[in-house]
Amino acid sequence: MSTTKPETTAKPAETVKVKLGKPHTHEGKDYDKDAELTVDKATDEWLRKAGVVGTEQTSAAPAGQA
Fold first, then answer.
1. pTM of the model
2. Scanning 15, 44, 58, 66, which has the fewest C-beta atoms within 10 Å of its C-beta?
3. 60-62 vs 14-19, strand pairing mode
4. Tens place of pLDDT for every residue, the chain, 66 residues?
5. What are phi and psi of 37, to 5 degrees?
């Protein structure tokens, strides 16, 4: 049996605040245009490629501090 502890110093996922440019359903919930969501970087990139949010600057914050 191993006595090694699992890694517990994982960094929190970096998040960004985005403002929707059009209505969108996120995680099963409907949001109106101009709603602000805090999402991880991968979701931010996906939303931008899909044209759901604009290209304006967003603010990054460690998870749990938004």
1. 0.61
2. 66
3. antiparallel
4. 556 655 555 566 799 999 999 999 988 999 999 999 999 999 999 999 999 997 654 444 444 544
5. -125, 150
Contact 53, 44 (CB under 8 A): yes
Cβ atoms of 56 and 10 closer than 8 Å? no
Cβ atoms < 10 Å from Cβ of 9: 4
State the number of CA atoms in the 13 A half-sphere of 47 facing the CB.
27
What tokens does 50 get? 């899909």
Q: Which DSSP helix (H) or strand (E) runs through 62?
A: strand 60-62
How many angstroms separate the CA atoms of 45 and 29, rounded? 19
- Residue 28: the pLDDT is 92
Amino acid at 12: P
Residue 61, classed as helix, strand or coil, is: strand
